[in-house]
Amino acid sequence: MMIGIDKIDLQKTFVLDWYSTDSDFVISVDACLLQSHPLYSLPLNGEIGPYRKVKFIFVGIVTISGLLEKSEVSFSLDPDGTKDYGEIETFAVNTCGEIGICGEFGDVVISCKEFNIEYEPSE
Fold it and tell me: How far apart are the C-alpha atoms of 18 and 81, rounded to whole Å?
């Protein structure tokens, strides 16, 4: 499992956006941090866990398949007006080093050179 991804409760993590740059693919999420995460803090009143805005960055994309267009994916609006595209159902690395990530946005298989997690500063 990727360093850091095991300290995030993916089934309580909500996809906010996904996009490509020249050579990278990014999934922006509202991540639910586990108690073992170094950035863990007590959840805010009424939340099921402490949340942090995070970007999963797939660097140097070789191939990507199974990704749906945003127009094909249903979403809900959070109270602050943010689009919520559902949770991440699975995140796994196969024996070839490809990353499989499944959610409302598709059953996606990504081959890339590097995977990074970028945490936005807490609010």
Answer: 17
